[in-house]
Amino acid sequence: MDDSLRRARVRRASSERLTVSRYTHVKNSLRPSNWSIARKARNQKAPYYCIACVEAATTQPFEEGLKTERRLFTELENSDEAKALRYAFFAERDRGAWLNTDRLQVASTADIAAAIVALDWGHGAQPRARALGWLSRAGRDCRTIRALGSAALGLSYLAAGWIDLYFHPMLAPWDGAAGQVIAEEAGASLFNFAGGRWNYSEPECIACTPQLAEWARQAVRRE
Description:
- The chain has two domains: 15-83, no CATH class; 105-221, D-Maltodextrin-Binding Protein, domain 2, CATH 3.40.190.
- Helix content is 51%, strand content 13%.
- It contains nine helices and eight strands.
- It has helices at residues 3-29, 37-41, 46-59, 62-77, 80-84, 125-138, 151-160, 173-185, 213-221, and strands at residues 89-92, 96-99, 102-103, 116-119, 144-147, 165-168, 189-191, 205-208.
- α6 links the parallel β4 (116-119) and β5.
- α3 packs antiparallel against α4 and α7 (151-160) packs parallel to α8 (173-185).
- The longest helix is centred in the N-terminal third of the chain and has 27 residues, at 3-29.
């Protein structure tokens, strides 16, 4: 046997051993005794269903595997856990704000030290510097701070009582139009940075529970 053929066979054997080694590692990692899925997933169905889909893909004929995957996906889609993660905020002037079928009311938090504060910022160095400056001051007083990534959700979360104050220095009208109605109908106070009533056409907004209104006014006056 010449050297080139011998080297080719060695490379092939090494590749086969590596493939078997990887397969064995993955197979063993799916065994409950070697994987902490029970601890990580707790009562969640989705992690177990993912493993079941992988098993179906590797052990069943193609068409049967697809049917199994579709069946498991449909079960998860209609599960109580999935339904709990789907919600819709809506409001109508003088008729209240709602989350699915529940009427919304802002929290009654009056002490900024107990308040959950959320903020977002627009693009550009100046608005971000302004938001960070306000954050550095508010952060000393409040309980905790969160960045949500959506003004519409920020104002809706305020309406639901999930946060107590929301700050944004650079809104576009489409960012806050719906959120303004939802928050106001739930009883929130909304101000511009001059301390007057905020309108969605204005870029600067601070919204809060009525009990935090004076703190919010003072906070934006320092801007």
